[in-house]
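Explain this fold:

***
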Amino acid sequence: MSEKGFSNYEVWFVTGAQLLYGGDAVVAVDGHSNEMVAGLNASGRLPFNVVYKGTANSSDEVLSVFKAANNDPKCVGVITWMHTFSPAKMWIHGLQNLKKPLLHFHTQFNKEIPWDTMDMDFMNLNQSAHGDREFGHICARMKVRRKVVVGHWQDSKAQDKIAVWMRVAAAWADAQDMLILRFGDQMNNVAVTDGDKVAAEETLGYHVDYCPVSTLMSYFEKIEDKDVDALVATYFAEYDHDKSLEDKTTEAYQKVWNSAKAELTLRACLTDKGAKAFTTNFDDLGTANIDSPKFLGFDQIPGLASQRLMAEGYGFGAEGDWKSAALYRTVWFMGQGLPNGSSFLEDYTLHFNGEQSAILQAHMLEVSPAIAESKPRLEVHFLGIGIRKSQTARLVFTSKPGNGITATVVDMGDHFRLIVNKVKCIKSNPLPKLPVASALWIPEPNFEIGAGAWILAGGTHHSCFSYDLTEEYWEDYAEIAGIEAVYINNDTTIRNFKKELQMNELYYKLKF
């Protein structure tokens, strides 16, 4: 698994200018650019460093720096700013070659006009007002996908917009070598969790491989009991639980122990293969006959393992849902260091209650403890689904109240569609006979419109939820990926949403 955090990443800052105004202007442009980049990095608002890569004064210089950006694995994107008037034809070849995400920063070194002292030399040097429009024109003409941020470089709002884009660009870089392992296939005949894996790799970057459960079991056999014992001790230290669960003579303890062995097995396989995400299928857990003396397999769905691995940043999708597994890894990666957490979730059952009508989000077991309101409880209960109908260990909790956002990617046949819905997590009533992790939310703008629009867009019953991300993250993600995106929020009406879907269908038919 990739190292957590953003320490291996940077974005490059390239300033546009020209040599028309002489050497003194070049020196001033360079000095201003260095001061701006240093100020951005010192702001404390960016997730990792911006690196100044100099002023580009010609087509050759633009092409050279953009090619270098493409070839540097630490560089996840490029920020451009036109300090003076930079003739846009000199950017054509560089933009044709640039493969990294692009942010166009429309700013200016000085914050205010120096009314009393401004002369023509000042005017010639500080030309962002029309230099950035020249650059914007060539990007529009060449249909270059990019984010445009407008604001002074010392303004926290502008810095925050850059920070969002940087997080998304880093997550995009992470996805370009993402391997998703599928332990088992999709659930039989389920359409929404399937899709075109070749198109997904071409468009979104990640690679999906099938990994037989028999291969997984080769790691299972190598797990040492002492390591399982140590992980069980970690469980008991980290989670609330009944003291009786620690009794080694009970079936419940054995189920916890077996869950720990499953976690170590999955972790070993994912690490060895270099995978960042995985899927499971509760009908494929190893040798089918659990009573056989040669039984080799998980004795329960590895739900506890999936919960903990998600919290660490592994992407996860249930029932073979590889698109959700990949998207959850991206959600987690974008949100690193932010306070409130994320999880894979599933729409389970509906609560019709007027203005408080809501959707219970849960799964059989696999919800990340990163969204828990309080310390999760480690419990063992019977689970009567799948090939292993047995006592099963899991973390039980409810999500914290608050606003969040959920997203999914669906394969529309000729393109991918990102569907995003703002939601409000609310307190749920106790569920004494449903010992699972859960969240209860009201989709914006309300239950009827939010759920109806999601269904009209073809949204999945699985989605990737975050308290910390916003629509801006998903706008940047869709722009970088070049995929369709639709947003369900307080401004949504069914009539306008249907028109948007119809226009989008027309656009993608013409495009492809």
User: Anything to note?
Assistant: The CA atoms of residues 80 and 413 lie 35 Å apart.
